[in-house]
Amino acid sequence: MITGTKQVGVRIEAAVKSFGRGQRAVDSLDLDIRPGELLTVLGPSGSGKSTVLSLLAGLAEVDSGRIWFGDQDVTALPPEARKIGVVFQSAVLYPHLSLRESISFAPKLAGVPRDEINARIAEVAAFLQISHLLDRRPHEVSGGERQRAAIAKALVSRPTLLLMDEPFSALDAQLRRALRSQVVRLHREFGATTVFVTHDQEEALGMGDRVAVMRGGRLEQVAPPLELYRNPVNTWVANFVSLQPLNLLPVEYDAQAGEVKLCGETVRLAGPDRPLPATFTLGIRSENLRLRPSADGPLQVLTAEAVGEQVKYTVVAPDGTNVVALGGADQVFEPDAKVALAVDWPRAMVFDTETGARIVEGITV
Ligand SMILES: Nc1ncnc2c1ncn2[C@@H]1O[C@H](COP(=O)(O)OP(=O)(O)OP(=O)(O)O)[C@@H](O)[C@H]1O
């Protein structure tokens, strides 16, 4: 880790923020961000992600609640007193200044000695591979290079908290991927506690030490990526974090026989870890569902779509439910083929049909 970086934990306590008389943009939010972690904040458009970032930056004030950086209550502190670095969707650089001048602006103002500023710029620019561009102005570099300069500008003041709001959303997919891994390495190197806002599942799950999922101004769940993926608290989170389509299938359970009826098939369960209700919703991701050839069905292939090395099948169950399954290119099913499901049961999720809440951890057959 680079010397001079302090790691601070952040605590948002019962934060409420509304704009005008409208709905609450952030509603009773409690969130702990650990010292030095890279937390991604994921949610659909309008879920309150940017507002959370503005509250942390001090660009917006909470209506009620408190914000702590370590043991310091910063709720009433203005942005300049918070020791934060912020990177927005489009780089905030001075158009008439060179990148070097833009990057050195804030530390110069703060009275950091010239040599120290130069050393910090050299270090961060080398890391971000923009050393050769420092004497150019913003309009003389590409969009990706401008975003890297904006990151350098945010880092050079040695912030204790780095806030990034969809910094790569205007860039093409390949560049986004490259910059994503650069930010992860940068975070490891510089160690500042980082909050990275995105509406992109792949970005949030790929980058975050933990992912905070927001919906309608509230926090639905916060967990490490794999835990979130495997143990989502409800159908909404399960669906939102899915990289491949999620099937939510109605299931009937006969407790006495220990059997479930799923898409026209009867399956014996070995041991649900808790009593199951007579009907529930089974959540199964298409990557955890395969098709088996079966002369007498009960399902029928509707479409087969190539996805790289795999094939995405949409099949229809006897009750008309559509089910999406992924298959390898080695076993190809033609449209209209009769098939049965091969469920990876330990990866199946059981949800309450009424509330959508997760009810058991996993079931075995
Ligand atoms: N300055 C503002 N004035 C009025 N309403 C606002 C303002 N900023 C945000 N809102 C409202 O607050 C809610 C949350 O907005 P916010 O920008 O935090 O969501 P977001 O999750 O970041 O969305 P996006 O992914 O589209 O940027 C939205 O309903 C939005 O319309």
Automatic annotation (TrEMBL):
InterPro entries: AAA+_ATPase, ABC_transporter-like_ATP-bd, ABC_transporter-like_CS, ABC_transpr_MalK/UgpC-like, Mo/tungstate-bd_C_term_dom, NA-bd_OB-fold, P-loop_NTPase, Transp-assoc_OB_typ2
Pfam families: ABC_tran (PF00005), TOBE_2 (PF08402)
Alphabetized GO MF terms: ABC-type transporter activity; ATP binding; ATP hydrolysis activity
SMART domains in alphabetical order: AAA (SM00382)
Example of a GO cellular component annotation carried by this entry: ATP-binding cassette (ABC) transporter complex, substrate-binding subunit-containing
Domain of life where this protein originates: Bacteria
Residue span, ABC transporter domain: 10-241
UniProt keywords, alphabetically: ATP-binding, Cell membrane, Membrane, Nucleotide-binding, Translocase, Transport
Name used for this protein in its record: ABC transporter ATP-binding protein
